[in-house]
From TrEMBL:
Enzyme Commission designation: 6.1.1.15
GO CC terms, sorted: cytosol
Protein name according to UniProt: Proline--tRNA ligase
Coiled-coil residue windows: none
Species of provenance: Candidatus Endolissoclinum faulkneri L5
Highest taxon listed in the record's lineage: Bacteria
A Pfam entry, by short name: tRNA-synt_2b
Amino acid sequence: MRLSSYFLPTLKNSPREADTISHRLMLRAGMIQQSSTGIYSWLPLGFKVLKRIEQIIREEQNAAGWNEMLMPTIQPAELWYKNNCYNDYGPEMLRITDRHKHNMLYGPTNEWQITDIFKKHIHSYKKLPSRLYHIQWKFRDEVRPRFGVMRGREFLMKDAYSFDIDRETAKINYNRQFMAYLRTFNRLGLKALPVNADSGLIGGKMNHEFVILADKGESEVFCQKDWLNADVNIDKFDYNENLQPVVDSYLKRYSATKARHDPVNCPIELGNLINLPCIEVGHIFYLGNKYSEPMGARVTCPNGRKKVVHMGSYGIGISRLVGAIVEAYNDKNGIVWPEKIAPFHLGLINLSVDDMTCRTASEDIYTKLCSAGVDILMDDSYYRPGVKLAIMDLIGLPWQIVVSPRHAVNKIVEIKNRRTGKREEISVEEVLTRFAPANQALT
RNA sequence: CGGGGUGUAGCGCAGCCUGGUAGCGCAUCUGCUUUGGGAGCAGGAAGUCGGCGGUUCGAAUCCGUCCACCCCGACCA
């Protein structure tokens, strides 16, 4: 992509409305634009990141054995009449009346809807387990949205659901998602901690939050110190094996959210306990019969009797993740994207567009890397060098290639690693061998 | 939902107290100069001063009211 034809409205000053660092940077980098409180338009750069994250999540959900589908954003209110949920949900639910005076709502979550779909089609234990997920926008009319996309009212979420014959088999799916989450966050370049919320309860509801550590996180986690250096390298495992031992190996370490942490009964001695700010990015639940029972989601068992299915639901806040990642990865000059989710893998800066040598070299590199499948943003603008460098730092692409009159005559360019700031002068030929995907795992 | 704060050019802000023809920086447009960290000079364009009502000869400024947005708390992916 050429910067000259890319919609990238960067800002030198951040708008007054933004206070949180990730919010400011996302506005300044031209990623998002606020529409109203907690509701944003995603401009091309932000949209690209959103899609990258979405795709990694999708691949991992598929790998874990879930079926992708899509449920609507607008739901009929009748779905929520069970157990008086429609009334109990309160003002957080955005209620809509259509022209026929039917009560509708913009879905804050999809448990009722998915259960409705399940029960209409699945009637036998032989069809279990059943695993479905979708990636869709949700709306919760929060009392106070804040932190930009980290806590919006409209948000993109991956929500997966599982249906099983009993608690034990439901646990298998729960463990699958647990591992899928570790893999997903790992691929996103994030160190995510599963936070055991209800560690002591047996047979009751079970749920884990996944949080990433960030200096200005909105919540806090209490955990064992060795979590921080824990090996989250989970490349080698088989979803069809018994995952319980692996999951247990992660859960043996203590972790709790601020709200759930009990300093009196904490099993960890103080010296081994650490308290850190974090952001919640995922949540998995074993739901039991909470939705299946009132909805009448039952299957016929081998003995001919009907049985209410056991459900699980598993969410990842995708739009929130974008903000959370920016919150975790930035420096004084701007965003510093982890390579796997960067909107472009590298930025090619032609410092002097009028210089024919620079232009020829830039076009040459651009053409060759593009055809090699590298996703590049080339700054072919007439901005001054200082502006170009500042913008490239701001939008945080992992690598920068600088073509300047200083070096271009000698077929040399400068490459800079955005994270380390380390610069290196290499030949044009070497650029190709270094950044083409055949030689380096960039994608 | 309680408490605090802000609405003036695309962005950041001054002006308001003490009413009198709308200002500054950056961005943008034109020209010249400059060219490795958000340039310099000169010129230009751009505003129903959040909306409505009131006071006044005259309102960005004073009064009333409504709206939008931000921050702190309680609450959530």
